[in-house]
Queue: 3 jobs
Job 1
Amino acid sequence: MRAYLAIIKDSFREALASRILYIMLGLISLLLLLAAPLTYRLELTTGVREGDAEEWPDLIDKLKQAEAETKPSPTRRIWTLLTAEQQKHVRDFKRLPKQPQLKDVREFQQAARKVIDALDEVAKKPELHDKPSWAGVSVSFEGRQLLGKGAEKLDSQDTLRLNRILIEAAFPGLMRLSPTTSFQFRYSFVRDFGPPLPITRSQFHDGITATLPYLVDKFLLAVGLLVAILVTSPIIPQTFDPGSLHLLLSKPIGRSLLYLTKFAGGCAFVMLCATYLFVGLWLLLGTRFGIWEPSILMCIPLYAFVFAIYYSVAALAGMFWRNAIVSVIVAVVFWGICFGVGSLNVLLEGTIDSSRLKRVVVAGDDVVAMDASKTPWVWDKETNAWKITFLTDEQKDFRFLFGLANGRNLGPAYDPKHKQLVGATLSLSNGQLMIVGGKKEKDWKPQEGPPAPISPVDILNEPDGTPLLVTNYSIQRVTGEITPPESKVKFLGYTLPSLKGGALTDGGPRPAQGWGDGMAPAIDPKTGLLYIYDGGEFTTLALQSGRYERQEKKRIWEKDRGRPVLAACGGTVLLGRANGQVVIFDGKTLETKETLEPEKESRVEAMAASPSGKTIAVLFENRRLWMYNVEEGKLELSRVTGQRDISAVTFASEDRLLVADRTDRVTEYSEDMSVSRRISPSMSLYAQAFRYGITPIYTICPKPGEFYKTVTHILADPPKPKSAAGEDDGNGEVRASSRG
């Protein structure tokens, strides 16, 4: 063992003798010394800058109106303090035309810049405040404190700060409210550079924390790794030079262990330099900016690990070719291959993800699916392939453009009573979201019915299959066939649909509700109760005489951010929250029964309830499927195939479970989880290349693109612990107190 330790020591002695270590440490010291004088100071936020207004044209228009005013006012006071030339700049200011040319934009920017400079000069005048002009004007608490001291008793800096507050009060809603202090960066403790940044200390800390991962990844890891490879590349080739090899083999050591020892020596050399660099950066951030971020030190082993990966390739090339230049070239080519494979993986994965089935509907004997781009497909048994369906001829012709605007589309859902598919889709003729219906005998070609209600959220199915359109304000039931209206209105050559409801009937409730954007509806297929979860509050509604009437309303949390997922089955309600929790409620009392986190690093993406009321399928974003047994109260990992690649799940009659995986494959399981049918189209060429070529190579290759994510994770703030009732648990929510 001593012989191998001696070799490592010899590596450092050689580095010292060749001055490589001195040069590396000197370069790192120079970098740290150049960064050491960089610091900041806090100063009062004063003056007017280009980014201080929400809309400069609106503010300047208000300032123009002050010229005609006769009574004292803040804007009139500012106008009188402008010079004649500055007043002319305000009068001559013009808004951009509707279709501006490059010349118009340039002139607009120059004119706005002149007015901004004029306001900045006014903000420096101590006579800005006079009692008649500012009487009755609401100013901030800080401004009232300064005025309470007496404007004549304020020093120059406080006067400038007061003037900034007064200008904000003169243009309420147009000027951004500024923090008391701004950050002014300095160098060498003397020279300021750049304009002061009107941000708070916490915003500055957050900005540094957000920028650090990029700087560490792009500069320290990328450039530093290249330098480290260049410096250490001669180690292995020199080891196997005839003279050096004979000397080393005179000791009782083997060639393979000699190679590994030299490799370890190169890694130790780089580890020493990385430790010096990151400890120095940590001390600089702490002493100069007050940011003591210990996670920076965790980048030392990460840097050494990443270096070891690429250095292993360079060392192997050095052993074969015994040339340092070839070693560097091979390492760079290896990095390029890894980067290219990663980029190709991202490109193909994005294409395939857009084709993943996200919704599966059983429409009679047919299976209809919707992919991630919201393109509907139907399974064609004759050709053994998916074919586009439920689109008009115009939508098919302009499918690419239609796909960019179809994010609002809903459905489809199957109406067994009228044997039609029901959905809400964007009309290319009038730009409205329209209710559409299609039948199998017409190859599911949709016909436009009435306009969709305002803010539609989802299309559900009642226990008897009747489609139910839930919006943020109302509930609509599809009680008839969706057909084009008999009377049509022509406008500018376009045929507009009738505004009459037609197949839609009002489903209540009364009075109308106002649910938020994050609402989630669900129907219990066994009891028929409609559950709506909205920002921490549950509402239950029951169908009575064709309308849904409110039965129960209960607040569970004071607030709950994110988009939840809801399912109800057999008197049990499952709520998938944005923080990854699956909360189980009693369907009658809405009392919490249990809180589970089966996938701690993933959130719920979709849920589906079985018609019999026995099972709820829970699909997570990591594409793993779990099944909740309502009778036993257990959540277990499903025994279906394709785990970690599942994209959609639904139930059909007789508790048949349909699972979409492998992009566009659908497998049907019977109640005993045996496979009863499998829809498996042939894979496209790029899908085969991705699955059997790119994915295996990407799996075994280092991933340069993932290093940034790792650094971001290391330098990110640690998660806040969950708290007791009545406190924020770090997920943007506050548990409602049990005390009245």
Job 2
Amino acid sequence: QARFLASVGALELKVFFVSAVSFLAMHAWLLSSPTQSHSFGKRLVFWLLVGCLCAGLFYLRGDSHEGNVWLCGYVLELIFSIENVFVFHVIIEAFRCPFAVIQKILAIVICCQVGFQLLFFVGLSRVLLQASFLPYVLGIWLVGVGVQTGLSQHDHFELKDSTVYWALSRVLGDRLLPEYALDGSFVKVKHGSVRMTMLAAVTACLLLVDFLFEVDVTLAKIEEFDYSLLNFTSSAVAAFAVPDLYFVAQRFFKRFTLMRFGICFVLVFYGVLLLVHQFVDPPPIAGLCVVIVVMTLSVLLSWALGYECNDKEKMRESAVGQDTAKFSKRSSKEAGHDDEIGKNVATVPDTPKIVQT
């Protein structure tokens, strides 16, 4: 903590606050028009340029070493963020999240991730380092998720058959509602009891996974660069690019259907690396190269074997979630049947309902 406070400088604080305000303003605008298609690729390029600009500011300050540390830390965080994107995709697909809900969830997760990063760089990571079992737990979970992703048939997927929903329903019972609220509520009051919506469930799952992954990248950066505030600001700026990185990747996942098996391999690959991290610890760039090769092969095979989805309308509905508008147009009469829906919580539909509150 003392090292972190001693490293506080005016430029570092300006970089963080300007980036944070830009991120919050951008997502506030996106959430105000959730059913419109947005240029995720352009915004991803914007955040990459912001990272380069921030690194340039440190170089211009006259300290090339600090500039190198910041830029390397930024790239390292982006590499680890790609791992997060694969896991986020699997979880969000399992919960059948509508587009408007995904944007809100990712904005919340990234804000919490920046908070995690601050705690870790202040000193919490040193404490978590003593919990040597965490990499093994996360590794086993990743291998299991990867195998299940490869074996599952998404076209005939039912939420009630997923392991995630089964575990949550066992813990929460009838307090778990298989529906999303149009107003973005995490909880709803029905029949005098407070119940958790699917928005709260998927957010909790993503936060848990993000927390565990952030431990890994934070420890890697601390071991490589002992510059606390530089590490934190580079991690935060890189994290702001994750939502757009997710949506860009999702478009590829929807278009090239064999990428599902590429995702399966990547998850198992990262899981195995965590399980054998004491014996094999390849540099992050090596893992990134493996991911690029595997996903490129998946794209080429999808194209060569005819597993490419060229139906732009279908892709738009699937990847961007235009079906959200369909639910938002429910009549007030239909929306008035929430109590009736609440009586049938035990019967979980294929896709969680979106209900007006």
Job 3
Amino acid sequence: MSDALENLARAFQPGPRPGPGRTPGPIGMTILLLLWVGLGVLPFVSAVSDLKLATGSVGTPGTLTVVSCEDLGEGRYDCKGSFTPDGGGAAIPVDASPDSSAGDVKRARLTPEGDRAVPTGTPGILAALTLPFLGVGVFAFLPYVVMYVFGVRRGRRAAVAFGGLLVAVSLVGVVVGMVAAYS
């Protein structure tokens, strides 16, 4: 029994500090930083189409009525709706946002492809900004890491404070966006 406890205690002891040859070299660090930047940019790029729809820049204005929501398991839903254009015409069957409930009626915009409708107005814009706020959180401590990689000592505390502030802003933005999406 004591051997098991000793092994468990040993598993949580700090390991050897990285030394020469145990950290990524300049090429490895460049690759890691580029991947980090790519991971941070991806939410901004992904949100562009929904932001354009939510702000009314593209798409057909109208009303979305959520007809049904099917539970796919593991907290996932597939919702179908009916979109009625403001200019009149027949209702168009569309995919509705998975955070909808059957019977919801919302102002929305139909995508140019005509396959889904995105809520507009303040709730739609806040919901569409959820991913960009997540991207802000990903970028929060990048200045500190770049300073560390290049050996810059001056300003690291300010970079950490700034990173903490960006994480707080990111967290608030993501929570507000999620609440707007589900309300």
